[in-house]
């Protein structure tokens, strides 16, 4: 099923959490099995009906262009942008103002998921939100004993508790009006955009995903991804049904 939506794949980060490996390769080219994670992401987009992709590059961007080319090997069209200076997580969209003239997808180039793109896009289009954030539930185990206190007196103690939160997957649907909020030529993060929209009480929605989601920038997720067969037949990474 063709989704008919452009996608921006963010590949400009330095991948500091995966050093020293990312001193040689940009994070989206880190291998999952025998293939770079970005190839898996692009193939997943194509199987979900996305044919036109913009890849934002910065650090070691020439390597990404060498590996992916114009996208014809996956029957898709890839256009690249190059950051001269780091522009943050959302700032690179300022380089694509003219091309993104209708609702579009934005995703990090190191995310592996079985998120249903058709459902995400459908939910966004029927809502009055300017941004819909793909979200997942993540638990984080604290390395410390947590103390509750009132006026210096201990009222509670939890030994290395596990905290559960709804977190951004690094996948978004956005309307072109969002681009008006992004300055040109300076670093601008998704956090900056969110704080701005919340302050103005602009509508932002979430799409809750309960399936697979791996952030390859995290060492734990990178290692976990090696144990999954990321091929076209894999049920974990197949085309999501509408």
From TrEMBL:
Q: Name one Pfam family in it.
A: NTP_transferase
Q: Spell out the coiled coil positions from the record.
A: none
Matching entries from InterPro entries are given as: Mannose-1P_guanyltransferase, NTP_transferase_dom, Nucleotide-diphossugar_trans
Key word Flavoprotein present in the record?
A: no
Per the UniProt entry, what species is this protein from, by scientific name?
A: Bradyrhizobium barranii
A GO term, aspect molecular function: transferase activity
Write the protein's name: NTP transferase domain-containing protein
Name all Nucleotidyl transferase domain ranges: 6-227
Ordered alphabetically, the record's keywords are:
Transferase
């Amino acid at each position: 099923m063709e989704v008919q939506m452009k996608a921006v794949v963010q590949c400009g980060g330095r991948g500091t959490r995966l050093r020293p490996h990312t001193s040689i390769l940009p994070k989206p080219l880190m291998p999952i099995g025998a293939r770079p994670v970005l190839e898996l992401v692009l193939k997943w987009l194509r199987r979900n009906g996305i044919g036109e992709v913009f890849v934002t590059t910065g650090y070691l961007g020439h390597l990404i262009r060498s590996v992916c080319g114009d996208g014809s090997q996956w029957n898709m069209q890839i256009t690249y942008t190059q950051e001269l200076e780091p522009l943050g997580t959302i700032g690179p969209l300022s380089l694509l103002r003219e091309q993104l003239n209708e609702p579009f997808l934005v995703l990090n180039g190191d995310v592996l998921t079985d998120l249903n793109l058709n459902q995400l896009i459908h939910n966004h289009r029927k809502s009055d939100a300017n941004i819909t954030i793909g979200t997942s539930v993540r638990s984080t185990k604290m390395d410390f004993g947590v103390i509750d206190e009132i006026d210096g007196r201990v009222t509670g103690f939890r030994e290395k508790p596990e905290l559960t939160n709804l977190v951004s997957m690094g996948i978004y649907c956005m309307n072109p009006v969002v681009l008006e909020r992004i300055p040109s030529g300076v670093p601008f993060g998704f956090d900056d955009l969110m704080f701005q929209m919340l302050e103005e009480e602009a509508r932002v929605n979430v799409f809750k995903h309960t399936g697979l989601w791996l952030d390859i920038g995290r060492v734990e997720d990178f290692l976990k991804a090696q144990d999954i067969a990321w091929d076209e037949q894999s049920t974990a990474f197949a085309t999501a049904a509408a």
